[in-house]
Amino acid sequence: MSDERRKLHDAVHKRNEILDILVDDPKTKAELIDICSKSRSTVDRGLELLQEVECVEYGDGKYHTTPKGEIALTAYSRYTDTINNIQKSGRLLNTFPNENSLNSRFIHEMDVHQADPKIPDLALEPIREILRESTRLLGLVPTVHLSYTRVIEDAINQSETSVELIIEDHLFSTLQNTNAYEFDRILDNDRTSIQIYNGALPYSLWIMTSENDTYAGIIVHKDGGIKGVLINNTSEAISWTRNVYEHYKNEATIEQ
């Protein structure tokens, strides 16, 4: 890392609180000291450093961020949010093989719901809440739990949600030959469209759409159990999730 890049990195890392305050409105030094609850000397050093890296300027008696400062703060905030989510969901992320690791576009601003080992199905409650308001559900289905079946069936019957599922071929064959998971009630419903994928699907991935919002999520499994749920409704996450879904849909066949 060059000296200039390191200086910018250090300035934003150490003085991001000042940038965060100034990004909304210019402030006098006295106002900054009051809001930051920092000493005058600390604010002085912070402003001097941020001015040196051209993230803050002084004019008309107040300090304000430059375009460079705003962009740097946005990039830093995104980085720290992503790192925090990686830390919170590390065990869940490590359940995915390297070739199917999650994209950072999904991890940024992601909500993490770890499953309680004693009551793992409770991790699905955020999905139930979203699905109650949804009119459309798209999903990749590499595995099935009875709890999934009931969540989807409730959405179809109570909310009249339309459902499109892409199911692994061997799993679909198993579901046709057993009623252990009560999945036949979903397969036989007129509001359900089933497509078969000849191979292994990477995630239990879903997209739920309502009149006002769209959510994407992944149910994390390991050793046959539910380990957690990852949810995101940012445009970047939705875009990445749709791309993954469409990739497998393009290679799937419609169940007759």
Automatic annotation (TrEMBL):
Report domain HVO-A0261-like N-terminal positions. 12-85
SUPFAM superfamilies membership: Winged helix' DNA-binding domain
Occurrences of domain Methanogenesis regulatory protein FilR1 middle (ranges)? 123-250
Q: Which InterPro entries match?
A: FilR1_middle_dom, HVO_A0261-like_N, WH-like_DNA-bd_sf, WH_DNA-bd_sf
Q: What is this protein called?
A: Predicted transcriptional regulator, contains HTH domain
- Species for this entry: Natrinema salaciae
